[in-house]
Design brief:
5 helices, elongated, transmembrane
């Protein structure tokens, strides 16, 4: 029972739905990282099957471990939780170092007359290096379009 002096009920404003970020697995960066993981693991598998020299296996195995670490880091959103490190910079450095190592290992695997599996490992290593460069470029592009921290790009028109 409403009293005579009560205000009529007001309608509530519609709720604003917060736009969810796309999960890492469905982003372009996630696809490139997972392709990079698959190519590196395939290269390592071919090196193991061919009983290639240990440095080939160790370097590709180490890269598989590091790539898997970064994928888990981004999937579990730990990069947002552990903000004491600048993860995109570490990811770019890792991509460039991996590209250099994989190019060296692949060229060393492809130069001498070796078994078919070592050649396949070298070819997949070159493909891994290309994916590493693409991964680093994607992260760099995201940093430049969405800078965070003290450095922010500003337009010349904003200064006036």
């Amino acid at each position: 029972m409403a009293s005579a002096g009560a205000e009529p009920a007001r309608e509530m404003p519609p709720l604003k739905v917060k736009i969810q970020h796309r999960p890492f697995c469905f982003s372009v960066k996630g696809h490139v990282k997972m392709l990079r993981l698959a190519l590196t693991a395939t290269s390592m598998t071919f090196f193991i099957l061919a009983q290639a020299p240990e440095p080939y296996i160790v370097i590709t195995g180490f890269e598989v471990t590091v790539i898997l670490f970064f994928i888990l880091l981004y999937m579990l959103r730990l990069d947002r939780l552990m903000n004491c490190l600048f993860w995109p910079l570490l990811d770019i450095i890792n991509s460039m170092v991996t590209a250099v190592f994989m190019i060296i290992v692949s060229v060393l695997a492809l130069i001498p007359e070796t078994t078919f599996f070592i050649v396949l490992g070298g070819v997949f290593g070159v493909l891994t290096a290309v994916c590493c460069l693409a991964d680093g470029a994607l992260i760099y592009r995201k940093l430049m379009f969405n800078p965070s921290g003290p450095y922010r790009k500003s337009s010349v028109h904003d200064k006036f």
